[in-house]
Write a structure and sequence with these properties.
Blueprint lengths: L1 H17 L18 H6 L32 E5 L29 E5 L13
Parallel strand pairs: 1-2
GO molecular function, one term: mannosyl-glycoprotein endo-beta-N-acetylglucosaminidase activity
GO cellular component, one term: cytosol
Pfam family, one: Glyco_hydro_85
């Protein structure tokens, strides 16, 4: 069964790679990187179809003091083997074995290494 799951994900990735990505066209909501300085400077990300799906559902809590608790802390560094694979689907994907973090409240520092110029975190609620 694992071979079938992996095979279908590879086929999906190949199909995704074949079609040019246009962030303004409605499609399955995804997170995506900014790969050039021009993309970053244009701020076009905020006009993309996908932007509204990449918003936090819980407001960021205010940090007390320096924001770092006076105890040992947990840092999670997520390097997704090339970045933006199974984790790009903001509403979940088809791979039941995809890496996922379920207990965010236990993490003090989170680092996402995406292999791209800029990786935007989900925006905060106002």
């Amino acid at each position: 069964m694992e071979a079938t799951t992996a095979g279908s994900n590879q086929e999906g990735a190949a199909a995704d790679a074949a079609a040019p990505f246009d962030p303004l066209v409605p499609a399955v909501p995804v997170s995506y990187p900014l790969k050039t300085l021009e993309e970053l400077e244009s701020r076009a990300y905020f006009k993309s179809f996908h932007y509204s799906f990449n918003q936090a559902q819980v407001k960021l809590q205010p940090a007390g003091g320096d924001g770092v608790p006076p105890r040992r802390r947990i840092l999670v560094c997520h390097d997704m083997a090339g970045g933006y694979t199974d984790d790009r689907y903001v509403q979940g994907g088809k791979n039941a074995d995809a890496y996922s973090i379920w207990h965010w409240y236990l993490i003090d520092v989170f680092v996402y290494f995406s292999h791209d110029l800029v990786t935007l975190p989900p925006p905060l609620l106002d």
